[in-house]
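Following up on my earlier thread - several people asked me to post the actual chain instead of describing it. Fair enough. Here it is, all 161 residues.
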Amino acid sequence: MKPNIKLAAALSASVLALVGCYVVPMVDSRGNVQYQHYPLPPAGTPMAVSPGVYQATGTAFPTVLNARLYPDNDLATHTGVVTGTVTNMMNGKGRFQLQYSGEILTGEATRVSNDERRGIASAYGSSGSYMSCEYQMINLQQGAGSCAFSSGARYKLHIGS
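Reply from S.P.:
Thanks for posting it. Predicted structure:
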């Protein structure tokens, strides 16, 4: 009877370890990467480092920050203010997501080496739209910069509350 209990425990642990896992991006039949959006919690919500695993006490949790992009040229005025989120992973990396002209763009933000405050962010949408930004953080919760889109639109970026 003990082997059955051990087997059941091992299978249960395997299933629990996989709960909440997801894969982004996906690849279509032609080998093209298909970026999918994934919902993020509200800004300021502490997040798990991996499903069910939180960092030890005394270290920073990843934090979701609001990102607001304000038009900086005539092309950008057609869409107005663009909003999104940046998940600061507290390790020099982040996840970037926003909705632009009816399309969700997802990507990443990375700090520039030798400068903890400066970084770049890039995002891509499934219809081919893309953007790139340069930014500088004031602290872990606030920053500013500029973004350019494939459409030619340019924006001023504000990160945080």
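The longest strand covers residues 63-71. That should answer part of your original question.
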